[in-house]
Every structure is written in structure tokens, then in C-alpha cells.
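Honest question from a wet-lab person: if I give you the sequences of every part of a complex, can you actually get the arrangement of the whole thing, not just the pieces? Trying it with mine:
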Amino acid sequence: MSSTSSCLVTKLSHYVSLSEADCVRLATLEKAERTFDAGHEVYQGGDENKDLYVVKHGWAFSYTDLPDGRRQIVKIHHPGDIIGFPDVALKHATTTLRTVEDVCLCPFPKSSLDEILRESPKLSALLLSIALRDQVVLIDVLRAMGRMSAQERVSYMLLDLISRLRITNPGITDTIRLPMTQSQIADYLGLTNVYISKTFIRMEEDGYIHRDQNRLQILREDAMIELTDFHDRYADMDTSWFPQD
Amino acid sequence: MSSTSSCLVTKLSHYVSLSEADCVRLATLEKAERTFDAGHEVYQGGDENKDLYVVKHGWAFSYTDLPDGRRQIVKIHHPGDIIGFPDVALKHATTTLRTVEDVCLCPFPKSSLDEILRESPKLSALLLSIALRDQVVLIDVLRAMGRMSAQERVSYMLLDLISRLRITNPGITDTIRLPMTQSQIADYLGLTNVYISKTFIRMEEDGYIHRDQNRLQILREDAMIELTDFHDRYADMDTSWFPQD
DNA sequence: ACCATGCTTTCAACTGGATTGAATTCCGCC
DNA sequence: GGCGGAATTCAATCCAGTTGAAAGCATGGT
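Yes, you can. This is the full assembly:
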């Protein structure tokens, strides 16, 4: 019961069945809670990175700036995500973490990770797999940024978002809440807010999407999948080689 | 002696001191050898991925295509690199591997990785760290692709290349061999071959670089570091938390 | 009800980099 | 030494996306 209320357990159980002991281990990470207002910067690039965070609810994102202010959002975080994982390898945080809306985060020290690595081979394999899978996802984003038009990039982003949201909430059909501003979407896709606006309008006219407030309905998912040659990396994971406990 | 002749051992020893047993374990991965001509495709995206490869000598790269032929090179591989690591998480290869020049690769099965994970905590931590560090590097590339001009992207690429080559060969000062064609560089940076040519010429005129055959000399490394806000992720790794054996 | 604030949309001028095709240089090879 | 194919360079043109500013629209606070 206590374990099923954990976003992290819900998300990771999607990939592999976890022992009761492992569920408890994970749920422990979400013991501490901190809430943050919308638009708050939780930590900055360059800070010493001691903690990781599990997202309990709300959206956040990680970004880097160039010295002249150009901004690149590199990852959008949803409930159940582990924030700051890549930075474990380095001495300092490489990105800044900012909340999109009111958010609840569960901080836990890097050392907890250490403990998992020593005590649960299955969770270790899962963590390594997630790190590697996230590389594949970053490569997909790279492909979008390097070679896709604005409309293709927006389509790719929406498909990726809905795939990720479906992991924890299989009930989602074709409509998602999109709390990010168009400027933030632009900073994620390497475009400008103006052109995001134009692209959304065009996509709505062409019947790909429908917008209502901050809810977005994907009307022609198949067409968008073909347009972007989209692959759902979250559904294609290979857990067959994992050690059993 | 047998261990020091391994590219992989040389590369990984740069990050952490390895026990004799671990050196042997790694050197074993390079037992089998296969050579490939320049421009050869070793495996294709979509193939079942059974093997990983260690690069013994020569350059290669991994790329993905869009259905209409647009191409994105996602990673350039040098001696000592492990090829195909991200795909371990998935059932199928996500990229195609192509050689730049005559290359010698050492294939080894995914299962060898499994063995390392079970038997050497220190190597496991190192592999996880490298996976996470590679995420950070991909994020740096993403930032370049999303927000940098052509000249900044070329500068970033050159700085990244020379940093990586210095890991295994600290003797490198400011000159590198660059066996890739300008079309390949363009496919890596999300530009066109024509514009790469123009950018190189401009950078040479401005005194940033000097070219001679396929050798490239970086004349104003400091200026390029400032231009791109470059961080050497290969030098900044945090191995302090690794388990001892 | 009103203003302040921040987001989206619109407009018009502009430009970095793309495209195309042809010319040139380079280089391995017979 | 000269042939053939690839890589690079050059020049002209074009366009997707930028820039900056202004106008419309929500939302929430007092």
C-alpha cells in the first residue's frame, strides 16, 4: 500500500516487476518532501550536486544558458522522474532546474543511489538501463534538432510527451495538459516563441491538433508518427537480461 | 603488459586506477578482432543488437536517417570507445555504424557486460558513470545544435574532439588529424557541406585554425572555449563515490 | 470593476544558412 | 603522367525562421 503510492515505484514497475523489498527501498527515497512555487529555480548549473530529486507532482525542466542569454531546455520532468541523474557522473551540476508550475519534489542524497547499487542487482540493472535509454532519447531529440523542420519538431515533442505520460497513466488517450509556455517550448526545440505560435496555429488549421486552454488534443497521431518517424523508446526496453533476485 | 596494450584499459584508466584483475577483464573484451574497410557499414539501425564493439584503431560514426534521406550523425567513435552502449537498453539497434577509414573493431557480446556487472563493483560504477557522463555530453551537443551559430558549432566540435583525443594521448597539443569529410561534419552539426566549407574558410581567415591536408591545427583554443562556453566533461568526472575493491 | 502582469498572437522587415549547379582541386590508381 | 571519382570551392538565388515591436487576451490581486 505504501509502495503503490510512490510515483517512482509506479514508473519503474512499468519496466520490470519489483520485489517488495525493492519497492520499499524506492519508496524510501520519496520520504522527504519539498514544495516549490511555479517558476522557482531549485538549483543552478555549477552548484555542487549532492542531491537527486524524485518528482511527486507538477512539471519542471532542466536548462542551460549560453553566456549571452540564449537558452536551451534539455529535459522536461514529469511525476516519477529522477532529476539530476546525469550529473551524478560529474562534480558540479551542469543544468539549472526550474519549476513550470507548483511542484512537489523528494530530494535524496547521491549516497542512497550507492546503497541501491550495492544491495539490489536488479535495481542497478534498471538504473543503468534507464541511463542508457535516456541516451537514446537524447539522440532522438538531437535528430529532431539537427534535421527536422519546425512542424516536425513540435510533432516529435508532443509524441514524446504523450508516450511518457502514458507510462504512469495508461488511461491517457489523445489529450494532454501542456502547462509550458510557448517560449519554453521554443527553448526546448531550438526555435523562437513567435514561430512556435505560428506552427501551432498551422497545425491546428491542418487538423493535427486541437487546443483548448492549456489542454492539447492530438487528432492525427498516426500521421504525426509517420511525419517524424517516431519510435516509442519507453515501450521498447529490453529487460530480458536483468539479474533475478 | 598485455593489459597496457588495450585501448579500452588505457582510456578507462584515465578515470580511475584499475586492479590487475579488472584490467585483464577489460583486455579480454578486445580478444577478438575484425577489420573493416573505409566507408563500410558494420550494422544497421533496426538490427537485433547482440554485440558491442571496442574501437582498436581508426574512426567510425553512428548515424540515423529520416525516411526521406536527411541524415544525423549522432556520435563519432575513436580508439578506446565502446560502440553500441546506449542500445543495450533496447531490443534493436537505433543507429547505423559506419567506418570513416580503415578500422579495427573488437566485438564482444552484451553478456560480457553482464559478467562485469556481477563481478566488479568498481567497473560497474565506472560503466554507469560513463553512461551518465555521455548523457551530459549529448546535452552539450544538444545545446550547440539548438542555440549556436555555424561557427560556434564547428568550434564546439573541434574542442570536443581534441579533448577526447587527449584522454588517450596526452601528447596531443593543438593539432589533430580530421579524417571526416565536410559532408559528414555537416551531418554531425546539422548544417550543409557547403556551409561547413564556408565556415572553415572563414575560421582560417580569422586565425582560429590552420588546415593542412587532413590535419587541423587549433590556433586560438582559448578564444574558441570562450566563444562556445566549453566545458571539458572528460576531465571533470567525479569518481570519489566509487566502491573500492 | 480595475489595473498589473505575463502570455499569445500578429505584423513586417530582415538574415543566416540552405539550395543548386557548375567549376575546381585533390588523390588514388593504372 | 594522365584518368576518374570524390571532395571542395564558388556564385547566385531562395526561404524558413528571426527580430522587435505592438496589439490582443487571460488571470489574478486589491
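Two things worth pointing out. The domain at 3-118 of chain A is CATH 2.60.120.10 (Jelly Rolls). The radius of gyration of chain A is 18 Å.
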